What does this fold into?
Amino acid sequence: MKNFRSLFLMITFWSLSFFVFSQNLPYYVPTDSILSWWSYSGNAVDESGNNNNGVVTGATLTTDRFGIPNSAYQFSQNCKIRNCKNDTTHMNNFSYSFWVNPTDTMRLPIEGDSSNMITIQKQCVIHPNHGLMYGSYTTNAGAGVYVGKNGVAVIEHSHNYIKRALVSRDTLIGWHHIVIVYNNKIPSLYINGQFIKTGVSSSRNVHPSLGYDSTIITLHNFSNSGIGAGLNNQYNSGHFFYGKIDDIGIWGRSLTLKDITDLYVGCQLNFSTLPTNQTGFINNTAQFVTVASDSLSEYQWQTDLGVGFQNLYNIGQYSGVTNDTLTISYLTMLNNNQNFRCIIKRGDCVDTSNTVTLTVIDNSGISDNNLESLFTIYPNPTEDVINVKADPKLIGSTYNVYDNAGKIILSGMLNTEITVIELGNLSSGIYLFRVGETMKQTFKVIKK
It folds into this structure.
């Protein structure tokens, strides 16, 4: 029973650890059969939940493709990141994905050549592990990837076996997204979400190169192997990568085209607060508020006046058109039922908000007393709930509830003619219910 309890606790701890760490993954990263994910956001921690953390030697944190500091690694001579765990269970069907910005070219080999002497000499992104790490070196090989400004090469590696499984001559200046998909021992290359080519089939069981085996590294002197360096033995001097590497993912399956597209175009940018419909009165002011998930995002408010959405400018009624809060001043009935939305942008990432509507009420012939008649609150006093019966013109409007100190303690929207609002957490006292700038009523909460 004691052993069972220990096993249960161990499984529970591992499950919780995987859950916690995997929550750090960007929403667009496929989690099915994921083996490792390194975002390189401040460190080389594996965020897949599999705890394959990297040990950084020489490489330095730098800006990523969005210009965000400390979000990628810069590599050069004698730089590498060595990951602590190897994988021996997945073979022949697996995938690599990463962003790369090479600053040097490499000597491209002949595709299909499997002679022992390797001729690339540098630009190793993922070191091809030795076949001994997976059992017999005569039947197994590890796969690695090299990327230079002039192309991509996939290398399979074992004892007296270095096969150029895929070679592609491409111009890669600046940041590019690279995906290598092995399907039944055959590698395929995708650049920036587009299929480029398929390589040649392997005669061995091919494995993803996740980490290292210290015994094999010592035996064969692969002292510089890892991310950004590889094959440091009697044949060469390190194959060091020159440039930047970011967002490396490894999966124990063949990624689908949708997976590849999501990884390329997927962005973490989204709205943490969406705008809501607003109601205002003639000659008054209305505001739409939204918040982007990234504080460095750019904002652009748009409106549709019957010819499609167009950008707004800070002229006339409009101000804050490139901020999180859009203000429309001196409302007229021409603004009634006017639609708005917001575009946010961060680097190449773009997201569009929901469409919201401005309702303008002509109160020019309505006395202040009659404004309150546009909605009714009951029961009043109350203990734990109020019903707000609203004029149809107010449906879709937002409301706020204030305490005696003027602090907003509840907010919401009048979705129907009668909106039910729960007040269970409010203490006894007088509260102000407000719609728009001028419509307000007080209600009293009495706790028994």
User: Anything to note?
Assistant: The longest strand covers residues 94-102.
